[in-house]
């Protein structure tokens, strides 16, 4: 019996991109269903009643919520091909730490960069650069965060890349100047079919942000 | 120097620190507990967790592991032969356990903390309602996850039991301070029985602080400076 895999998602979401990339990496066919976050669908509310957020992965009718949990679920459910996480317990703990770091420390500042002004925006920009530098330090000279294997942290972070242009414009800074190794890493990832298929063009995101600000009532 | 030495950097009152300690106890792994002084951070902590500078940190054979839930998984995987698995066997059930652990850290515990910090009746009422809503969700989650067995993880204490149970002492302190029961036989009957089983488990009892001791400590750290 074929697996039924549905993804409730929102095209600009860097979190949704994680799940898209993970599914593509494993060659899993899935039904992508675009959601209107300003008018949430019954299926979204039914499948993620606690948070009412995307992405939601629905596998044979059963929902899995939270993007990094979905990435791990995909890795465990479809173990063929590249593993996103190493098998050694200590080696597994490191990517999980960095995935958690990205969620707790990298995402927040991005909202200040495109959503705030003046001192708040500056503070967000400063924080974001600091966090990116920590990530870059962790990457070092490796091909991917997973070393030779494109894995969990690469998947966790790559969705932010299509947001870099708009963040640079809003915050008036150059990510390449601050973190050249990270940009080189991102370009390597973009060469992967799974990533190229899953990320929207940067200019689509750049055009989208002013519209988003209007929608949520920010000047 | 023993190559397999296990150390936990932490503090007795921290619920997050309790998580790796319970996990190590469940796997019968001896460890050295290095207590941080409240208000100061040791050299070892800063060296072992330079990114967050927070406790707990597990150091195994001189290699640090940070973030309490990640440490619990690490302990489970490293000493897999020393005790039952702390996570369910199917990927779906594991995803559910991880989901609720994330919910507890991101939504439930911040609400619980807000009760102790709330000023005025209106604010208190609002945060209390949030916690009660969370408890109702967790009561249902318990019924779904435990499938009739004593713990979220089934027969034995596991990842989600630890993720939630570590907060029980602070929950009791909050109940005392507010004069309001949060987990009880009427509102959350399954959780109420689970809480008792959890707190009485030999892996948990030695690391769960006494409510009275914790209440004294809470008074100290939440004390408002003199006007």
Automatic annotation (TrEMBL), chain A:
<comment type="similarity">
    <text>Belongs to the GST superfamily. Tau family.</text>
</comment>
<dbReference type="InterPro" id="IPR036282">
    <property type="entry name" value="Glutathione-S-Trfase_C_sf"/>
</dbReference>
<dbReference type="Pfam" id="PF02798">
    <property type="entry name" value="GST_N"/>
</dbReference>
<dbReference type="InterPro" id="IPR040079">
    <property type="entry name" value="Glutathione_S-Trfase"/>
</dbReference>
<feature type="domain" description="GST N-terminal">
    <location>
        <begin position="3"/>
        <end position="82"/>
    </location>
</feature>
<dbReference type="InterPro" id="IPR036249">
    <property type="entry name" value="Thioredoxin-like_sf"/>
</dbReference>
<keyword id="KW-0808">Transferase</keyword>
<dbReference type="InterPro" id="IPR004045">
    <property type="entry name" value="Glutathione_S-Trfase_N"/>
</dbReference>
<feature type="domain" description="GST C-terminal">
    <location>
        <begin position="88"/>
        <end position="208"/>
    </location>
</feature>
<dbReference type="InterPro" id="IPR045073">
    <property type="entry name" value="Omega/Tau-like"/>
</dbReference>
<keyword id="KW-0963">Cytoplasm</keyword>
<dbReference type="InterPro" id="IPR010987">
    <property type="entry name" value="Glutathione-S-Trfase_C-like"/>
</dbReference>
<keyword id="KW-0216">Detoxification</keyword>
<dbReference type="InterPro" id="IPR045074">
    <property type="entry name" value="GST_C_Tau"/>
</dbReference>
<dbReference type="InterPro" id="IPR004046">
    <property type="entry name" value="GST_C"/>
</dbReference>
<protein>
    <recommendedName>
        <fullName>glutathione transferase</fullName>
        <ecNumber>2.5.1.18</ecNumber>
    </recommendedName>
</protein>
<dbReference type="Pfam" id="PF00043">
    <property type="entry name" value="GST_C"/>
</dbReference>
Automatic annotation (TrEMBL), chain B:
<dbReference type="InterPro" id="IPR040079">
    <property type="entry name" value="Glutathione_S-Trfase"/>
</dbReference>
<dbReference type="InterPro" id="IPR004045">
    <property type="entry name" value="Glutathione_S-Trfase_N"/>
</dbReference>
<dbReference type="GO" id="GO:0005829">
    <property type="term" value="C:cytosol"/>
</dbReference>
<dbReference type="Pfam" id="PF02798">
    <property type="entry name" value="GST_N"/>
</dbReference>
<comment type="similarity">
    <text>Belongs to the GST superfamily. Tau family.</text>
</comment>
<feature type="domain" description="GST C-terminal">
    <location>
        <begin position="90"/>
        <end position="227"/>
    </location>
</feature>
<feature type="domain" description="GST N-terminal">
    <location>
        <begin position="4"/>
        <end position="83"/>
    </location>
</feature>
<protein>
    <recommendedName>
        <fullName>glutathione transferase</fullName>
        <ecNumber>2.5.1.18</ecNumber>
    </recommendedName>
</protein>
<dbReference type="GO" id="GO:0006749">
    <property type="term" value="P:glutathione metabolic process"/>
</dbReference>
<dbReference type="InterPro" id="IPR045073">
    <property type="entry name" value="Omega/Tau-like"/>
</dbReference>
<dbReference type="InterPro" id="IPR036249">
    <property type="entry name" value="Thioredoxin-like_sf"/>
</dbReference>
<dbReference type="InterPro" id="IPR045074">
    <property type="entry name" value="GST_C_Tau"/>
</dbReference>
<dbReference type="Pfam" id="PF00043">
    <property type="entry name" value="GST_C"/>
</dbReference>
<dbReference type="GO" id="GO:0004364">
    <property type="term" value="F:glutathione transferase activity"/>
</dbReference>
<keyword id="KW-0808">Transferase</keyword>
<dbReference type="GO" id="GO:0009407">
    <property type="term" value="P:toxin catabolic process"/>
</dbReference>
<dbReference type="InterPro" id="IPR010987">
    <property type="entry name" value="Glutathione-S-Trfase_C-like"/>
</dbReference>
<keyword id="KW-0216">Detoxification</keyword>
<dbReference type="InterPro" id="IPR036282">
    <property type="entry name" value="Glutathione-S-Trfase_C_sf"/>
</dbReference>
<keyword id="KW-0963">Cytoplasm</keyword>
<dbReference type="InterPro" id="IPR004046">
    <property type="entry name" value="GST_C"/>
</dbReference>
